């Protein structure tokens, strides 16, 4: 079946699912394959559950004459083609693609909050930023949406280039580049080259341009002379709008302005001075599309993080700084630096392993240990196999279950606690016990 024909079916059934357990009536089911499952085997169940159409690539599961089945050569490739085709049918929408080592999800949400002040916006939900999540997000674009904010992630070279071809962005934004997924990228230079694939796409296809943090030397080098909306910290040369942290105890208060204009001060609900770059990216995007500064400030002040990223929580027993969705050497260093500056009578850190660092893993985990020694925390708990190979002198736990057992037997009270680790360590389970 040609993509145009499949698109006609999609327009009649514009709700897409890849999970046979979630089958909204009248939706389309795409039978994806994984390492341990074959969605083709669940196509009949999806149709029984309410789906109107099942897209499969195993013809043996499609009964002859049953028009509810659409057989294609490759379901994943078809999903990507359909997402791209749908995006191409909406040339009047402004599509902004966001990537980066750290902060891309928070930036995506801040940008979306700002642009929502002036019209309908569709953006990546949760962390659906890969080869499956990106086309699914594109397929949620509606006729009346003015903006699409598409987050893209990668852990191997070439992935941002592939996702950019699917998204076909009008503008791009790289939050930063740091030492993450080194096992897949090979080196920090590999990280830079892969993230720069977004800049390459914008440049090669003569798109509008990029949003550029001129305070970041790596991004400046990667961007060269590309057309850009430039933002940065106060004193950054070439910025069209700049900002600075006013205070951070525990939430970030910052201010921003353009040249010869007054300061706009915003009290946020974000933890961590490093979020100034994410906030300024949202300011720059809003400024580019004519959002009044008063509405930019209102959107940023109203944003509440709820995704274990830069989240502050008072449990009644302790104050928690939760940044447990992801961790790499760059984000870990930023979190520890911020926590060291936080004013609190009793401080504690629970740090989980950083994943996908390859040969650099032991060195990078040891650096975290040394930084933890300088943090001023009364208690430091380390969690995971990678920290087991460091010289630390702190309490070490094999996994999050061991931490939970300790907290149940010996409850902690009266501390301000940083919880930081890769998602795979599951430290996000700890707040219920603190």
Description:
This protein is 34% helix and 21% strand. The chain has 434 residues and is of the alpha/beta class. The chain has three domains: 3-74, MurE/MurF, N-terminal domain (Udp-n-acetylmuramoylalanyl-d-glutamate--2,6- Diaminopimelate Ligase, Chain: A, domain 1, 3-Layer(aba) Sandwich), CATH 3.40.1390; 90-302, UDP-N-acetylmuramoyl-L-alanine:D-glutamate ligase (3-Layer(aba) Sandwich); 311-433, Mur ligase, C-terminal domain (Protein-Tyrosine Phosphatase, Chain A, Alpha-Beta Complex), CATH 3.90.190.20. The strands form three sheets. It has a nine-stranded mixed beta sheet, with helices on both faces. Helix 1 (3-12) packs across helix 3. The model has no long low-confidence stretch (mean pLDDT 92).
Q: What is the third-level CATH name, the topology of the largest domain?
A: UDP-N-acetylmuramoyl-L-alanine:D-glutamate ligase
CATH architect. name of the largest domain: 3-Layer(aba) Sandwich
Task: Count up the helices.
Answer: 15
Uncertain parts: none
Q: For the residues shown, what is the average pLDDT?
A: 92
Structural class: alpha/beta
Task: Supply Rg.
Answer: 23 Å
CATH H-level superfamily of the largest domain: Mur-like, catalytic domain
As a percent range, the share of helical residues equals 25-40%
| Tally of structural domains | 3
Indicate the overall shape: globular
Strand arrangement, largest sheet?
6-7-5-8-9-10-11-12-13
Span of the ends, CA to CA: 55 Å
Strand content: 15-25%
Count all strands and give the number: 19
- What characterizes the major β-sheet? 9 strands, mixed
Instruction: Give the CATH class of the largest domain.
Output: Alpha Beta
